[in-house]
Amino acid sequence: MSGDGTGMRVAVEGVHRTYGAGPTAVRALRGVGFTVRPGELVAVRGRSGSGKTTLLNVVGGLDRCDAGTVRLDDEVVTAMSDDDLLALRRGPVAHVFQSFGLVPVLTARENVGVPLRLRGTEPQERERRVGAVLDRVGLGGHGEHRPDELSGGQQQRVALARALVSRPRLLLADEPTGQLDSETGREVMSLIARLAVEESMTTVVTTHDPALLGLADRVLTIADGVVTDEG
Amino acid sequence: MRARVLLVRRAGAHPLAVLAVTVSVAMALVVVVALRLLTATIGDAGVRSALEVPAADRSLVLSGTLDPGDTAAVDALVADVGGGLPGARVTRVSTVTSRGLPGRAGTDRAALAETDGLAGAVTVVDGRLPAPPEGKPGVVEVVLPVAAADGLDVAVGDRLALTDLVDDDAPPLDVEVVGTVRPDDVDAALWLDLPLGVVGVTSTEFTTYGPFLLAPGTLDGGLLGRSSATWRVELGLTGVDAGSLDGVRADVAEAVTTLRRESGLPLVANDPDTAAPATVPLDGARVSTVVPAELDAARLVADRIRASLLTPVLLLALLGGTALVGSAGLLAGLREEETRLLRVRGASSTRLARLGLGEALAVAAVGVLVTLALAPGTTRAVAGVPGPWWRPADAVDPLLWSTVLPLAAGAVGVAVVTGLWVGRDTRGRSSARLAAGSGLDLALLVLAALALVQLRRYDASGSTTVDPLTGAAPALVVAGFSVLALRLVPLLSRLAVRAGTRRPGLDLAWGGWQLARRGAQQTGVILLVLLAFGMGTIALAHDATVTRAIEDQSAFEAGAPLRVDRGVPGRTSSTTGAVVEEAAGADRVVPVSRGTTSLGGLDGVTVLGLDASAAGTVLDPRADTLRGASWPDLAGRLAAQDRPPPAVPLPEGTERLTLELAVDSPVEIRRFGFRRGDGFTGAVHVEDGRGVVAALPVGGIGEQRRAVTVDLGSRRLTPPLAVVGVEVDLPDFVSALAPAGSVRLDLGQVTADGQEVPVDGLVDGTDDRGLWLALPPAADRPVPVLATPAVAEALQGEDGRRVLLPLGGREVPVEVVGVVDALPTAADPAAGVALDLATVAATPEAGAPGSFRSRTVLEPGEWWSAPADVEAAAAQVRADAAYGTRVVVRDELVAERRADPVNAGMRSAMALVAGASLVLAAVGFAASSTALARRRRAENGVLVALGVPPARLARVLEAERLAVVVGTVAVGLLLGAAAALAVVPLLAGGDGHPQVPAVDVVLPPLTVLGFAGALTLVLTVLGWVVVRDDRRRGRPPGGKS
């Protein structure tokens, strides 16, 4: 799989994921199934504890399901080895987290450069691409700032830039506006939508903010670990 | 929730972190308290060691003259004074004027004495002890030392009439020898006042035999008139320790005052107004003692030990504090969320502080209990004191409590403040970094430098007190260096970041970023490792240095691997040299003459006469005292290149040498004050194969030529032998009675075992000191000498004028051919001169017209040797040598000093310090690594989400910890070396022995590197275990939705 080019096709079939065992076991996903077309922006909505984050983690290879299949294009993610999953996350799949997931001791530029370092990109090329992607998220002048010197919206833009810098084909954003006020959340969501189109990448965003759902091509609804509506 | 329940639950939530805090506190308390207890134990041992002085130095002496019958009053006074002093034993020795011995040389004398301790001080070899005179009217019973009886050729039952040398008309004193005795202990105090009792015979201008020991009470009977008496109060100081030292000092001062007051002496020297009338009938009373000075010296030793051990105590307290900060910081970090929650639920800062205080008090209580259980036993084990591990008395030891309680309070304070400090905004800077940044390190170093200078001044002045700041100097040095080293952290971090930024990969950059931007998380552990390594290096260097110093000082004290001399005053047995040569091998023995002389303003200059031909291989002075030269080369420079051939060689194997001798005088010898048949003391000078000249007595030489025989066979001199001179001593007054040069020595036939030997090589060399036949005059060449710098300077003279060295009543021209810093066995190491015995003997007196060679100047009284098997040779010498011979074995001195409680205790203490440092560093490092790993969990989760394998992250963290440890240990090597060089000389001199030659700091490279390796390994493995454990416990980010 290449990290460049068009978005990935996502096919999820009968995915189950249970945490723990016995009477206290939590069944986070119970036979989830859906498909996302290449380049499509899909929003996944649901209440807290409905299984949204688990679903994104299983799709992105951060977590393994107990049963079912996840395919990205023709690759079966659920059958991949740990190393293949790591390669997947270094390459075509990128994550954006609700809590931004920035390294506090690194500047915005350094945070964004981490994925390129993981891919062994030469320093000159790395710096060029980092500068370009920061410009695209509107933070060209904030590259030397550390996360605690940036607002929440700016931090999420840096996280988005870090996700985009390796030119992913699938962006998985878990509640990217969850820690932002509504105005900033809308801005970030708009940015994600715009960049998804510009980069032709498939995007799956979880949110429970109805105001943001309008930016998506399609909305999946998940409740108690089951997709109840595929929009 | 009740506070107690909350405390228990809080502790139970993080048991390992609480355990780390508890171990840090307990370990620091146990070791510091053990060191304090050890300080007291070693201090007491040091005091005892310092007070292990000869009887002469622990005695109060009262002397004077008194009439018969007056003894009892003074006896009572002295007994009363002695009763107030520890372990006091009183002896009295009374003597009367020496008497003549009819039928013997006119210069022979008989000494009479009486002592009240005779029965307990001697072994009766033959006969019995004397009874008071009333038993046999007219005859006084005496006993004689065996040596005196042999010298006089008298036996039990013989009677002698001792003449009065003052009153010619007085009747002789008839004495009967009823026994012969031998001293049980030649070092006993009694013989200090009666040294003749040990040797039996002394030869100066007169030959004195005796003492003729009278029965106690004889002199009080009035038979012999007034007597001189010496009362000696010998103190038993073995039970004195550092605590009782000052009390004993006061008691001794009081005793001296009493003796002076009661005997009518002024209480203040030279102030007659402070004198009161005497209450005892003692004329010319004199009171003397050096006990106060000895007690002061012991106090100095105790203070030095306390000051020396202050260094490891302070450093361990510092190290323990640092480890505690690390582990308490970990605990507080783990509780950040919990603390936030408590605040949200209304807990005030005071309430939180109270919780922290309660927990700290609980931890401190555990630490105190552990200390109570372990510290006393540890102290006894380390100090080698026998006894159970714990005894009830330990629980009420005031020193223990006075140490542990302030320390525990300090630990509570550190734990509480650390708990409150964590989480506050210090902008990523630790307190240690802040300390460095604020210049505290430089301040510490300046303070340390000042204190070190002051400490060296104390050393030089021999001051008996050391103030706390000065005593803390070594600790300040290590602490200052450690904090100073933290200044390197940002520099190294920047380098790491720069290197990482220029590369495409993440690992190096990630490690660099963490080091550079989370330096605060590293400084604690860096400080910990630096302190531990610094202390470990000091401990190792101390051990190696003390080992070396003990060997050096033992070698200096012994002079050679085996030294044989006479342990008591008097002439060495004539066969001792032969015994040593037989045991050690002739080529491994150096005859040595050791004496002192004065040179210009220098008094007490040790003159070491030795056989230079063998000294090069037998002696082995420390190389750095030789100023770049080799010892064989220096020894080789001492021997004259052109020794004259022997004038009167004796046939090989000569056993008996017979000479016909007479004094040729124009005035009858009788007029010189001698009866017919008496004569002047004579000696024949025989040179042995080494060129060493020995003067062999030949008895009295009178007007009538008579054959005198010397038994060369029994003396077992090193062949070949040659006669190089004959002398007869003349009393000073002879020159007033006989015209100058008119008295001559007449030498007739000389035979060796009956075979005549030509004596053409001897010429007349008579001068105003005696009659001489000697080798002909030779060129006036200086004797090559090795000298210490002060002596070499004194020998330079002004304006290039040659300075002469006074030797044996002569002045010998010398030339300094080498300078050495210290000469073995010299009383004052800085004032010594060494020369070749044979060269001195063959060198004429400087500038004296008609000066002749080969007069005996220095006679060997010691034999230094380096046998192949020292132990066997020493055993053989001990078995074969004459009574009173002393055998000094260098390795035995080494063993004694190593076993010295102070040395052994200090070494154990330093080993304890090194071990405790390692443990505390390990605990602190583990806590720090755990805290670091936990703080990284979240961002590591992000990196895993970005595609970094968790194992790789763990490896980066491990490599980062390894880099910190290796870098710190590398810096620690330099720091440790610098600290050891500054500190160890101050720690190595606490046993009260003079450190001669000067302590040479030994930094054992392999041991230090081994310690560095062990420390690195231990910490790396710990870091690895902690990181792996954290990885196992850690979870990926995201969690459940």
Automatic annotation (TrEMBL), chain A:
<keyword id="KW-0067">ATP-binding</keyword>
<feature type="domain" description="ABC transporter">
    <location>
        <begin position="10"/>
        <end position="231"/>
    </location>
</feature>
<dbReference type="InterPro" id="IPR003593">
    <property type="entry name" value="AAA+_ATPase"/>
</dbReference>
<dbReference type="InterPro" id="IPR015854">
    <property type="entry name" value="ABC_transpr_LolD-like"/>
</dbReference>
<dbReference type="InterPro" id="IPR027417">
    <property type="entry name" value="P-loop_NTPase"/>
</dbReference>
<dbReference type="InterPro" id="IPR017911">
    <property type="entry name" value="MacB-like_ATP-bd"/>
</dbReference>
<dbReference type="GO" id="GO:0005886">
    <property type="term" value="C:plasma membrane"/>
</dbReference>
<keyword id="KW-0547">Nucleotide-binding</keyword>
<dbReference type="InterPro" id="IPR003439">
    <property type="entry name" value="ABC_transporter-like_ATP-bd"/>
</dbReference>
<dbReference type="Pfam" id="PF00005">
    <property type="entry name" value="ABC_tran"/>
</dbReference>
<dbReference type="GO" id="GO:0016887">
    <property type="term" value="F:ATP hydrolysis activity"/>
</dbReference>
<protein>
    <submittedName>
        <fullName>ABC transporter ATP-binding protein</fullName>
    </submittedName>
</protein>
<dbReference type="InterPro" id="IPR017871">
    <property type="entry name" value="ABC_transporter-like_CS"/>
</dbReference>
<dbReference type="GO" id="GO:0022857">
    <property type="term" value="F:transmembrane transporter activity"/>
</dbReference>
<dbReference type="GO" id="GO:0098796">
    <property type="term" value="C:membrane protein complex"/>
</dbReference>
<dbReference type="GO" id="GO:0005524">
    <property type="term" value="F:ATP binding"/>
</dbReference>
<keyword id="KW-0813">Transport</keyword>
UniProtKB/TrEMBL annotation, chain B:
<feature type="transmembrane region" description="Helical">
    <location>
        <begin position="473"/>
        <end position="493"/>
    </location>
</feature>
<feature type="transmembrane region" description="Helical">
    <location>
        <begin position="434"/>
        <end position="453"/>
    </location>
</feature>
<keyword id="KW-0472">Membrane</keyword>
<feature type="transmembrane region" description="Helical">
    <location>
        <begin position="962"/>
        <end position="988"/>
    </location>
</feature>
<keyword id="KW-1003">Cell membrane</keyword>
<dbReference type="GO" id="GO:0005886">
    <property type="term" value="C:plasma membrane"/>
</dbReference>
<feature type="transmembrane region" description="Helical">
    <location>
        <begin position="1008"/>
        <end position="1027"/>
    </location>
</feature>
<dbReference type="Pfam" id="PF02687">
    <property type="entry name" value="FtsX"/>
</dbReference>
<feature type="transmembrane region" description="Helical">
    <location>
        <begin position="355"/>
        <end position="379"/>
    </location>
</feature>
<keyword id="KW-0812">Transmembrane</keyword>
<protein>
    <recommendedName>
        <fullName>ABC3 transporter permease C-terminal domain-containing protein</fullName>
    </recommendedName>
</protein>
<feature type="transmembrane region" description="Helical">
    <location>
        <begin position="908"/>
        <end position="927"/>
    </location>
</feature>
<dbReference type="GO" id="GO:0022857">
    <property type="term" value="F:transmembrane transporter activity"/>
</dbReference>
<feature type="transmembrane region" description="Helical">
    <location>
        <begin position="524"/>
        <end position="542"/>
    </location>
</feature>
<feature type="transmembrane region" description="Helical">
    <location>
        <begin position="309"/>
        <end position="334"/>
    </location>
</feature>
<feature type="domain" description="ABC3 transporter permease C-terminal">
    <location>
        <begin position="912"/>
        <end position="1027"/>
    </location>
</feature>
<comment type="similarity">
    <text>Belongs to the ABC-4 integral membrane protein family.</text>
</comment>
<feature type="transmembrane region" description="Helical">
    <location>
        <begin position="12"/>
        <end position="38"/>
    </location>
</feature>
<feature type="transmembrane region" description="Helical">
    <location>
        <begin position="399"/>
        <end position="422"/>
    </location>
</feature>
<dbReference type="InterPro" id="IPR003838">
    <property type="entry name" value="ABC3_permease_C"/>
</dbReference>
<dbReference type="InterPro" id="IPR050250">
    <property type="entry name" value="Macrolide_Exporter_MacB"/>
</dbReference>
<keyword id="KW-1133">Transmembrane helix</keyword>
